[in-house]
Each structure stands twice: as C-alpha cells, then as structure tokens.
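Subject: design request, 819 residues
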C-alpha cells in the first residue's frame, strides 16, 4: 500500500508537470466516456433499470402473435383466464388494459390515461398503498360490482395536492360516480414503462361505459397486456415450453387459436411493448456501438499522447532501470499514471453524461393525454459503467507504452536522442497504426450520421397521402361528460358546422384518429367470396372513421368513385373508401368499386366499396405501403375524435376560437390536445425518433471527426518535430522546401488513405444491418460513403498540411543543431 501511495503521488506530480498534455488527454477521454455514459444512461432508463416492484428480476411479459401479421399483440380476456388456470410456471399472472377516460371532480373534468387491472395486479407486484388501500380480490373482475378507483401518486399530488381526505370520496369517471379507495406508491408509475399512469380501475369496469360484451366473450379481442412472475427456479425457457403446451391445447379446443402463438419476453426487453423484431433494442445497440467508436477514437488519441510522453521519458526509464528499478516497478508506475489520467477523464465524462441525461429526461411528449416519462437519471449502474470504462481505458491506454518503456536501456536512449526518431521505428509504426484505426472509426461514424441525416430528410419529404400544412387538430373525449353515441354524433355534427363559420376556416372535419397519432384502429377484414376456415387468411387492416368533409379537408386524392355524403347515415347501406394498397391486395386487376367486405364476420353484414383513395402513411413515415380503409362517421360514431380544420390563416391562431366553440356546445368538456398537424407530425409516431437519431449520430460523428483530426495532427506534428535533424540534412543536401512539404504530407495522406480504405470496407459490411432503421436510403449508400470519405480526407489533409508547412519553413542551420 505504501508503494501504491508513492506511485499515485509521483503520478499526480508527473501529470501536473505536463499540464497541456494532461488537459488534452482528460478532455479527450471526457468526450469519449461522456458519450458512452449518456447513451448507457438512456439505455439504462429504457431497458435496464428494474421496475419498483417486488420480484422485478422474475417479471416477464407474455406477448401474442397472429401468424401472417407483422408486429405483436396482447391477449384476450378468455386467453388470460385459460393461461391463469392452466400454466404452472408462474406464481402470478397479471393483466391490465390501457384506456382513456374522463375524470371529473367538482365539475372539473379532464382526460386521463388509466389502467383497467386484474384482481392480482397490485398483490402480484407486491405494492403497498401510499394512502387508503389498493384493488384486491375477485371483486375486481366481477361485473356489476361497485366501481372503485386508485389514483397514482403523481396524479394525487397534481390534482388533489396530496390531500388524504380524497380517499373515500366520489369522483366521476365518464359521467359515472366511482369511489376513491386509495393511492398507489410514489415510485410506481404503472407497468407501461414510458407512460405516467394517472389512475387504476378494476377490470370489471372495463365495459361499464360500453354497450359491448365483446371484451369478455371474444377471443379475437386481444388488447390485454399480460405480465407473469416466474416461480423461483423456473427459467424463461422452461416457462415458454409450458406455455407452448397450453397454447397447443387451446388451439385444439378453439378455432380462433389455431394461428395464434404466445411468446415470453424478459420484462426489460419488452418495453414499452413486446415486439418480435425488438426494433427499439436494435436502435439502442446501434448507438451504443457508435458511442464505443467514439471511445475508441479517444483512446487512440490518448494512447498516442502517452506514447509520445513515454518516448520523451525514455531517458528517465533507462536511468531508473540502471539504478536497479525492476521492470514490474516501471510498468506499475506508468500504469498508475495512465489510470489516474483515465479516472480524471472518467469523472469529467460522467459529469458530461449526467448533463446530457438530464437534458434528455426533460423532454416531454404528450401521448394518450399524459406525458411520456423519460427517466434517464444517473444511478449506481451508470456510475459503475462510467468507472468501469474509465479503468479499462486507463489499462488499455497505458499497457503498450508501459511495456515498451520498461524495456528501454540507457545506451539505446542516448544514441536515439542524438539522431531523432527513425520514421520506420517500432514506436512510430504503432502510432501510425493507431491513427489508421482512428480514421477508419471516424469514417464509420460519419457514414452512419450521414445515413441517419438522409433518412430523416426522406422521412420529412416522404409523401404522406395528405397535406399537413395549415391544419389544426383539436381532440376531445365526450365520454368525460357521459355522452352516448347518439349524443356524440349530434355534438360532432354541430361542432363541424360551427367551426366552418370561423374566420379563416376553409373546411372542417371530424375523424376518430389523426394520421401518425397515438391512437389507431385496426381489425379483421372478411372479403366477400373468400371465406376460409384458416384464421391466417383473415387479414387485419387499419381503418379510420371520418365524416363527409374529411377527404376535402385533408386533401386526400380520390382516384375513383366518390367520397362519403350526407346520405351515408346509420340506417343507409354500409359503405367504405379503400386505399390503393387494399384494392391491389384483395381485388387484384379488378375495379374495387362495388366490391364488398365485412368487419364482423364471414357472413356479414357487408360493406360496399364506393371510393378509391391514394395510399398514404398512417402509422409512421417509415412504414411500408399499408392497406387501409375509411368508414363514414355516422355509421361508426367514435366517442374520442379530433376536429381537423384547414385554414387560410396560421392554424395556431384559431385555437382560442375553436376552444370557445367547443365549450359553447359542451360546457366543461376538456380538450385532450390542441396542435397543428405539423406539430403532431413531430411526435413519437412521426419525425421525433428520426430527428433524435440524427442529432445523436450527428453529434457522435462530429466528435469522431474532431478526434480523428486531432489524432492525425498530433502524430504528423510529432513526427515532423522528431525528424527536424533529418530535414536539416535533406535541405543541406539540396532538397527544396516543396520536397519537405511533400515528404511530410505523404506520411499524413498515407495514414488517411489507409484509414479511409479500411473504414469503407468495414462500413460497407456493417451498413447492411442499418437497413431496417432507414427510410429511402441503403446502409451502403454510395453517395453517403463518397461524401463522408471526401469530408474526412479534406479534414485529414488540413490536419497534415499545418505541421508539414511548419516543417518546410524550418531553417537548415537550426535543424542541423536539433537534438
């Protein structure tokens, strides 16, 4: 310990003795470690931090998959009951369903996102109430039971200022009275990882405000999210085997289960939804690899600095060895200095990462009426990660210089000191190799950044199928006032008529869903004349309920047929408008007008196609061409809907007038959201992820370019300085200044060219894995590869030209006296 203390003291003195080198190394490592810490902190918040529940390490998610349908799904209530009674791998099987309701207290209603929970939801998670009690027992799923509600702690604080007297009082949910029985724990925000849940209701109230029994009786109504707590000693593989047996048994009993499978996911990898493709996890892995490249660049820069310092200290090492210092003692001293350097950079990097994480956590996007919660705060995992990569960096950076310095001898150092460093020496070859690695890694970062930038531009300019300019969206939920469908229909008709009279409004419409918004509708479609016993032949197609002005307001081109009219009422024949993809897919080489399909079953009732619209984007800008159809609002009245206005004036200026019109027709009705269509497209299902990816990758690419430039400049500058004596000899023998310039530049261009070639090969091979994350551009896009290579080569040339120009201006007499 005494020797270690001496090494640390001596190492600190040596680092202070070279403040410029130390500062550059610390800042360089801070950039690399900070980028890694920030990315890891993001991944930690999204996937690694356990939920604040009991047995979080044994919590899993059961997701469904219908054969032939992309993406995952939930399970139905009947399937949940079967699994709960037949599987033996779980100590608890928990279910919940997300929904929007209207919460009202003292005649002050607002839209809230809630979870309808199973009887063992809170007990299975081992949660204790912050006030009152939670929902337990069979009554939670028993229909007709007295409705009760549990508030989230955050909602209790926001709406009721932590008033404990609210427990036992009545509030209204969708116009019906319910009793507040308790408050959930402060740290628990619900099981939907990025959404701040506002209340919890018994599953028995799931259909209290609906005239449909479909939730309880239809196996195709798969909107329950299922969480399981594995029994001690049971692995996910064993539980999956048991689950497969139950699913096969169900497939033999029920035709609806023949092409439906269920899969178990670790809870942390199923956030926010269980997805077979794990696209969000893939994005996280990609950015972690990019951050790793930045750290690699930082390490190579610092390694070169340490190599330079070890060369300068060669005499010191040789003298210490001659005086009896053992090789292990020299290695330990130099390794201690490298670790101290890395720890200093690590502390600065962790501070930088904490600042970036705090900024990311402050981002708020409104979804489902509640802000998405990005909790990327620092915790022990992030600190441990930052400390670990700092220590590893210190060891890697210091290992080679330490081993090389420990093998020096006095006579060799004295001879080398008199003649400078030979260009082809082992030390210069190592520094050159590190620069080549830097350039290659920097090129990969630049290419990925360029690909994400081009992808985001393509997403911004992709054809959406509608015109988003000068459109205002105002979303309301009439269930907050207890409206039924008939009353909702009259309200929306009156609202559209009143909105059309507002100054500057060109047209107005009502639709159940906004394109690329946070709610959507989809369901099975039965094509007339194509009845099949195979469930996989029944496609699931997205749809929207719109009124007669929708296609005019949104400027969606109709290619054939007609739009909806006032004659398409509830009592009129059922009609629909389908898009091009649906027409080509289900009626190829035929006129779709007059064709029929059903959304109820193979026996009907059938809906007749009366119009053909141009295809567009419905879920996100990057989706593949998707089948879609529209239903008239009068024949499928939505309770939650958006008023959409097209105006000749800035649409945001219409906000106060629209809000006033809504409150005149329905006093006390809260607005779910009010934003322009262009603002809506900036959300999580729109351009948000593409732009965040661009900013992340662009920042990492810029840092990588800077580090590569510093690395090239440092090596060429040091090499030129060490060859000053050689330069003097060459000039004395007749070499011109231009010859000296070309000699130094040749070394820099050789390193840059080698790095670019290696980087291009690696990028071309690795780029294919990015194809699923890009829009309209390939992972091996030649334009991006050429532009990134040209940019890197230009920057590298400038980094080489500066020390080359300095070398050509050296005076020969001064160079010959250089030692």
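Subject: RE: design request

Done. Sequence follows.
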């Amino acid at each position: 310990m005494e020797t270690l203390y001496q090494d640390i003291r001596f190492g600190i003195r040596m680092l202070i003795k070279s403040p410029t080198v130390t500062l550059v190394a610390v800042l360089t490592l801070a950039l690399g470690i900070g980028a890694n810490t920030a990315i890891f902190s993001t991944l930690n918040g999204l996937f690694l931090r356990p939920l604040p529940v009991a047995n979080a390490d044994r919590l899993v998610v059961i997701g469904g998959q219908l054969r032939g349908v992309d993406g995952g799904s939930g399970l139905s209530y009947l399937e949940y009951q079967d699994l709960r009674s037949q599987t033996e791998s779980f100590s608890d099987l928990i279910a919940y369903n997300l929904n929007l309701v209207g919460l009202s207290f003292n005649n002050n209603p607002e839209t809230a996102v809630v979870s309808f929970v199973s009887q063992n939801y809170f007990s299975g998670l081992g949660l204790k109430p912050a006030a009152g009690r939670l929902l337990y027992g069979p009554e939670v799923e028993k229909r007709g039971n007295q409705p009760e509600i549990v508030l989230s702690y955050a909602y209790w604080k926001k709406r009721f200022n932590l008033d404990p007297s609210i427990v036992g009082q009545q509030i209204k949910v969708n116009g019906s009275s319910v009793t507040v029985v308790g408050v959930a724990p402060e740290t628990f925000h619900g099981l939907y990882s990025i959404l701040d849940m506002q209340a919890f209701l018994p599953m028995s109230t799931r259909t209290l405000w609906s005239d449909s029994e479909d939730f309880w009786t239809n196996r195709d109504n798969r909107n329950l999210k299922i969480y399981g707590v594995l029994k001690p000693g049971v692995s996910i593989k064993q539980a999956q085997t048991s689950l497969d047996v139950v699913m096969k048994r169900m497939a033999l009993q029920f035709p609806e289960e023949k092409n439906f499978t269920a899969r178990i996911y670790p809870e942390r990898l199923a956030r926010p939804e269980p997805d077979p493709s794990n696209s969000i996890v893939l994005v996280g892995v990609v950015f972690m690899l990019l951050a790793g490249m930045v750290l690699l660049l930082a390490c190579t820069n610092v390694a070169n600095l340490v190599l330079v310092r070890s060369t300068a200290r060669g005499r010191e090492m040789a003298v210490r060895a001659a005086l009896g210092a053992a090789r292990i003692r020299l290695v330990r001293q130099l390794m201690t200095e490298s670790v101290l350097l890395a720890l200093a950079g690590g502390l600065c990097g962790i501070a930088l990462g904490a600042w970036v994480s705090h900024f990311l956590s402050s981002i708020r996007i409104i979804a489902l009426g509640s802000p998405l919660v990005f909790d990327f705060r620092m915790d022990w995992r992030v600190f441990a990660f930052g400390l670990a990569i700092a220590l590893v960096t210190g060891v890697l950076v210091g290992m080679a210089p330490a081993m090389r310095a420990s093998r020096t001898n006095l006579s060799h150092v004295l001879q080398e000191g008199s003649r400078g460093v030979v260009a082809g020496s082992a030390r210069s070859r190592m520094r050159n190799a590190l620069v080549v690695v830097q350039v290659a890694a920097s090129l990969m970062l630049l290419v990925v950044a360029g690909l994400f930038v081009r992808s985001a531009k393509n997403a911004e300019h992709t054809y959406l199928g509608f015109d988003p300019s000068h459109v205002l969206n105002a979303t309301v939920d009439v269930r907050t006032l207890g409206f039924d469908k008939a009353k909702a229909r009259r309200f929306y008709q009156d609202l559209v008529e009143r909105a059309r009279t507002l100054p500057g409004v060109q047209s107005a419409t009502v639709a159940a869903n906004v394109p690329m918004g946070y709610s959507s509708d989809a369901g099975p479609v039965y094509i007339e004349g194509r009845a099949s016993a195979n469930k996989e032949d029944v496609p699931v197609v997205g749809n929207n309920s719109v009124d007669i002005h929708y296609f005019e307001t949104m400027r969606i081109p109709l290619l054939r047929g007609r739009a909806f009219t006032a004659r398409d009422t509830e009592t009129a024949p059922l009609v629909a408008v389908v898009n091009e993809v649906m027409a080509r897919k289900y009626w190829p080489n035929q006129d779709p007008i007059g064709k029929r399909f059903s959304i109820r079953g193979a026996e009907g009732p059938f809906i007749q196609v009366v119009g053909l619209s141009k295809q567009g984007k419905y879920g996100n800008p990057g989706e593949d061409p998707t089948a879609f159809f529209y239903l008239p609002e009068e024949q499928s009245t939505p309770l939650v809907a958006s008023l959409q206005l097209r105006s000749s004036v800035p649409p945001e200026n219409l906000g106060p007038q629209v809000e006033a019109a809504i409150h005149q027709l329905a006093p006390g009705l809260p607005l779910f959201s009010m934003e322009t269509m262009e603002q809506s497209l900036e959300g999580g299902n729109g351009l948000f992820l593409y732009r965040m990816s661009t900013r992340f990758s662009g920042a990492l690419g810029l840092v990588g370019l800077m580090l590569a430039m510093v690395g090239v400049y440092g090596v060429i500058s040091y090499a030129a300085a060490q060859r000053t004596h050689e330069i003097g000899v060459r000039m004395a023998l007749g070499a011109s200044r231009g010859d000296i310039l070309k000699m130094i530049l040749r070394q820099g261009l050789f390193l840059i060219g080698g790095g670019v070639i290696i980087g291009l090969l690696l990028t071309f091979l690795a780029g294919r894995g990015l194809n699923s994350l890009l829009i309209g551009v390939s992972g091996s896009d030649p334009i991006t590869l050429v532009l990134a290579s040209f940019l890197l080569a230009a920057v590298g040339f400038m980094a080489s030209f500066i020390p080359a120009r300095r070398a050509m201006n050296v005076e020969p007499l001064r160079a010959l006296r250089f030692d």
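The mean pLDDT is 84.
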